């Protein structure tokens, strides 16, 4: 127990140092950095000195703003083995934005495009809309996204990165596989806000990838990441003795299919389908088919 406590202390100390490292490269002030991640400057100072811990949401936002991953912030490397499967190479950002100032501009444009596509639909968003949202010119948008297909491709990559970062931030300290699987289910519910927008992006990607072979590859690699995250959690639960010794791949196929189908029904507004009913159905499946009795 003492060793585990010391390991947590070491991890949080290293995390704080890595946040300080990216903060030093930030082109603005510490106060501006705090505002960008939606954090009171006093709370940021307390988190940097160790009297307060960063929340998962804050870690995810810091990663977005600075162009790093939550896995790097917590574990010191993008590819360190963690609770969630890392995105495959095609699902990672296609462009290295360079210095932090350019990375900040790139992130602003990508964030605006992502939200507009999620809210209005891919075919209803023009480059000029993104430019207006960012307070910049269409030429600047085209510098990062030469065409509309590039916008959709990068919004998918962004969604993959968001999901990975959120899962690492939320689950890195959850050792019990049963609890982690339930949290993974919770993180896939299309609740109002970020998760519902993420679902909107995925629905559009599913539609476009049926017609675009290039997008099919990216979609396949992105979905593989999610599948592998569920599968590794189920296998760990089997090793811990909390899950039944049923084929983990088959359980994963069924569970992800249930999540997809129920999520689409909720977003489509089918009568009688709600986030609460989706949560109940998924938890019942986990307890009935995956948990050891």
TrEMBL record:
Residue ranges forming the DNA-binding region read: 126-145
**UniProt-listed SMART domains:** HTH_XRE
Write out the GO MF terms: DNA-binding transcription factor activity; transcription cis-regulatory region binding
Question: Is ATP-binding among this UniProt entry's keywords?
Answer: no
Enumerate the UniProt keywords alphabetically. Answer: DNA-binding, Repressor, Transcription, Transcription regulation
The HTH tetR-type domain extends over 103-163
Q: Where is the HTH cro/C1-type domain?
A: 29-73
Keyword Nucleotide-binding appears in the UniProt entry: no
Please give the Pfam families that the UniProt record associates with this protein: TetR_C_6 (PF13977), TetR_N (PF00440)
Signal sequence annotation: none
Q: Which PANTHER family match?
A: HTH-TYPE TRANSCRIPTIONAL REGULATOR RUTR, MYCOFACTOCIN BIOSYNTHESIS TRANSCRIPTIONAL REGULATOR MFTR-RELATED
Its protein name is: Transcriptional regulator, TetR family
């Amino acid at each position: 127990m003492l060793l585990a406590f010391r390991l947590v202390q070491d991890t949080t100390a290293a995390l704080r140092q890595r946040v300080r490292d990216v903060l030093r490269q930030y082109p603005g002030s510490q106060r501006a950095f705090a505002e960008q991640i939606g954090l009171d400057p006093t709370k940021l100072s307390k988190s940097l000195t160790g009297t307060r811990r960063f929340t998962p949401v804050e870690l995810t936002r810091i990663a977005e703003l600075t162009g790093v991953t939550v896995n790097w912030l917590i574990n010191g490397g993008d590819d360190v083995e963690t609770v969630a499967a890392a995105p495959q190479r095609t699902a990672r950002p296609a462009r290295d934005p360079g210095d932090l100032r350019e990375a900040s501009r790139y992130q602003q444009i990508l964030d605006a495009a992502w939200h507009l596509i999620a809210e209005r639909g891919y075919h209803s968003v023009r480059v000029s809309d993104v430019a207006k949202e960012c307070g910049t010119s269409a030429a600047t948008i085209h510098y990062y996204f030469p065409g509309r297909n590039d916008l959709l491709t990068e919004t998918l990559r962004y969604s993959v990165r968001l999901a990975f970062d959120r899962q690492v931030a939320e689950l890195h300290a959850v050792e019990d596989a049963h609890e982690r699987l339930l949290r993974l289910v919770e993180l896939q519910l299309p609740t109002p806000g970020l998760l519902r927008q993420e679902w909107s992006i995925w629905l559009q990607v599913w539609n476009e990838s049926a017609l675009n072979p290039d997008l099919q590859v990216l979609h396949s690699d992105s979905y593989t990441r999610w599948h592998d995250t569920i599968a590794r959690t189920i296998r760990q639960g089997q090793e811990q003795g909390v899950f039944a010794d049923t084929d983990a791949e088959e359980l994963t196929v069924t569970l992800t299919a249930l999540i997809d189908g129920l999520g689409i029904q909720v977003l489509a507004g089918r009568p009688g389908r709600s986030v609460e009913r989706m949560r109940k159905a998924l938890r019942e499946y986990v307890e009935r088919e995956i948990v050891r009795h």
